[in-house]
Amino acid sequence: MERVGKYQIKRELGKGTRSTVYLAYDEFYGSDVAVKVYDDEGQSPAARVPRAQFLSEAALAGKLSHPHIVTILDAVVEERFSYVAMEYVHGGNLYRFTSPERLLPVADVVEIAFKCCGALDYAYRQGVVHRDIKPANILVARGTDVKVADFGAAFVRDAETTQKLRIGSPSYVAPEQIRDDPLTHQSDMYSLGVVLYELLVGRRPFYAGNMEDLLAMVLGEDPVRPSVWRPELPEELDVVVQRMLCKYPQERYPDWAELALELARIGHLSVYDQAIRDSEKFLALRPAALLTQFSDADLWELTRIGQWRRVPSQTVLLNEGKSGDSLFILARGEAKVTARGRLLNVLRAGECFGEMAYARDQAASRQATVETSTDALVVELTRSALDGLSIGCQLQLNRALLRALADRLELANVRLIPST
Length: 420
Known about the structure:
By secondary structure, the chain is α+β, with helices and mostly antiparallel strands. Helices cover about 35% and strands about 25% of the residues.
């Protein structure tokens, strides 16, 4: 096969029971893409991908705009086969990290699970239950940056699909799907629990010699605690994984946010030391009043471009009279703003400073000194990094800074008006 539609095939990336994934080249955009081809020829009617379902799901998946979800670029049904073109993620998938001799550091596994929570929460809020979460469907961009892929098996709320269809890999499927109970985000949560278990210890929670016995174990047996296989794992992780693998949805975490916060808490208690993980950065910025209008995608952009550091109390962050063009956000802690020795303001978590140089679009002499009054977490956003943000993210940031400047001008006016 040399071409699929407008895409020039380079090589095969992988093959499944009813589809083949190719690395291809999009000549129009001048970039590599991954093309997944579903071959309907020679398949029984039950094994074929229903075309109406294929189109509705592919169209919806293309609208899932999240930094940890693979972007669908194109979906086409032809006479002999159907295909989906998607962004090419060059780092492979998580499957290679599921053997005992190739396990990732525990901190990295927790970070990956945290990011998957955000992706699957976003998908569910768009009405999508993935139904086939497994290591092979979580792709690695770089480090712990992952992207959830293959929404072809998804249940799409309000679309012409059915929850009753037995889709998914048996080792990862939630008990309620075996029971033909309604599917929710907690069904994907169970499957992610299996993935987390496997990444932590190099084996799945349930093994059996045949399908019937495996499904019976999923329905009726409790998994062995992960720390039995890997004693150095913290007890808190045992608790999280076991709760994710509960037999009934109501026994699991009520939502993705609660699970993500628990994973982040465990991460901070483990081997992080002074390292600032992506999950900590994201959670530090999410509640900031300055960034309330930011989508998750915009917030992840801002998280990644920043230069992050922890600083102790009484650290000078900006010096009055010194030149600079960086914008800063105080992610945690407090700081005081002074000019000529006079206290002007007290900054709290979520507030920005240095915005005048950003607004002037050039390096400028700082008009005040900013010094931390508590231990703090600070992110510096340089001019060059900010210029590299997407247009949409820059627009959101500019609007946020305008609101912040307006609030500060109003506060200054109140202070200048003499009391009567």
